[in-house]
Every structure is written in structure tokens, then in C-alpha cells.
Amino acid sequence: MADKKIISLPEQQKILLEMLRFLDRICRKNKIKYSLINASLIGAIRHQGFVPWDDDIDVVLTKENYDKLKKILDKETGRYQTLKQGKGGERYGFLKLIDTHTQALEKNRPKFNPNYGIYIDITCYYPTSDGKKEQSKQFRKLKLLFSLYLRRKIFFKEEPLSKIILCLGKNACSKILGYNRINRRYNKLLNKYSDGKKYVISNWPVYGFENEIQLAKNTEEYIDVKFEGVTVMVFKEYDEILKTIYGDYMKMPPKNKRVPKHNITAWWRED
User: What is the 3-state secondary structure (H, E, C) of the chain?
Assistant: First the structure.
């Protein structure tokens, strides 16, 4: 990697913006609704573009739109393609759209994947139970299975012993169960409440239980906003959604927290 030209964060953001243009064109052409989410949605509302230190883009769709988009993107053979999952590839419970002209390495990934590149995370809101008890149970199981997808690298100098042991145990369970078995259980659990009408749950459960459950009605309408000058879609009720996830999302974090979340090193492919 030492002799490769590293892509700076501002350059990564320019690449991500072109990827977002591509994704937006596909969605509008095929009448698919999507919304920016998480830090990307905060960026659109608070900064009218990227949160200055953000190093990826997050997009979310409802189940019907997600399934439709997945079928289209999985057939793409150009510069932007979905990361092929399973044997030899990264393991996630959602789609990653990759710029195949780039390669990338994340700090917490256990090994280098030659298919990895600068990416957009594409996640989904699934219907969930109307009852809080069932929601909580589903969330805990989803979070466990999700953690088994990701075989994390452990930084022994930085982590307490309890966290190292937990991570080693999860990595071992992941290897024993295998990707296919984890994937079947994960999808079965996500589709358990397919007839739910009132609430939805993310298939990327990285925050706490109360932060991940959204009212389904808040994901039904969309508006256009500007993101670095590009017209993109967001949920009309973005304020309610962001408050559920973050609380006061308009408040800037302390300076020591204004750092790239994924710590991505990216460079151009030679082939």
C-alpha cells in the first residue's frame, strides 16, 4: 500500500457524491423511493451536504423499495456494483454499493478484501411487531446475529479484557455457524413480523433499541433536498426520525468526536 496513491477524505467525498448521483438516477428512473439516513441525513439537514468528517454515505429504503433496488443493483456490471457477499467476500446484512475503481481498507476489518472499495451503505426498514416486548426481543437477536456477520479485528492495546474475550467468542461462533446459517437466521428474524403495520426496524441495528424503532408512517412520504448541490430524497418526517436516533441532532459534537467513523484508507486500483 505504501507505493499507492492514497485518496484523501475530500476526494473520497467527491467519489461518494458521484455514486449518490448514480443511485439517485436509478431510483428515480425506476420509481423507487429512498432516503439518506444517519450521519448522511444529518449532513443534508445541518450542512446541506457531508458532515465535514464523514467518510461514507448511508441510504435506507422500505422493504418493498429495497427489494426492488437490490434486484436492479445486483445486475449492474459497470463501475458501481454491489459487494458480493459470502465466501471470499465481506459479510453484511445489507447492501454495499462499491466503486470498483477504488480499493479500501477499514481499521476494524480483520483482513484485506480485494473487492472492497469506497462505498454507500444501503439498508432497509422492515415491518416489526406492534408490541414493545416483541420488538425488544427481536432487536436483541438481530444485534447478536449482526455482530456475528462482522468478524471484528481486536486492538489489544485499546480494549479492556472483557471486550477482547467477547469479540473472540463472537468471531469463534461466526466461524462455527458459517455465513449461510447466520444469513438464514437473520433473514427469517427480519421477516418474522412481515404483516406489521405501525412500526419498522432497521436491518442495521447499530444503535440502541429505542433508537432503531421508527413509526412506519414516518417512512411513507419523501421530499427533495440539496446535498452538495445534488438533489436527493429524504423522508419528509426526517426531524422525527433523526430525533429518535440521535436526540438533538442539530447540536455539533465535541471537537474530539469530529473524526471519520470508519477510518477508511482508500486508493485507486491499478487494473
Answer: CCCCCEECHHHHHHHHHHHHHHHHHHHHHCCCCCEECHHHHHHHHHHCCCCCCCCCEEEEEEHHHHHHHHHHHCCCCCCEEECCCCCCCCCCCCEEEEECCEEEEECCCCCCCCCCCCEEEEEEEEEECCCHHHHHHHHHHHHHHHHHHCCCCCCCCCCCHHHHHHHHHHHHHHHHHCHHHHHHHHHHHHCCCCCCCCEEEECCCCCCHHHHEEEHHHHCCEEEEEECCEEEEEECCHHHHHHHHHCCCCCCCCHHHCCCCCCEEEEECCC
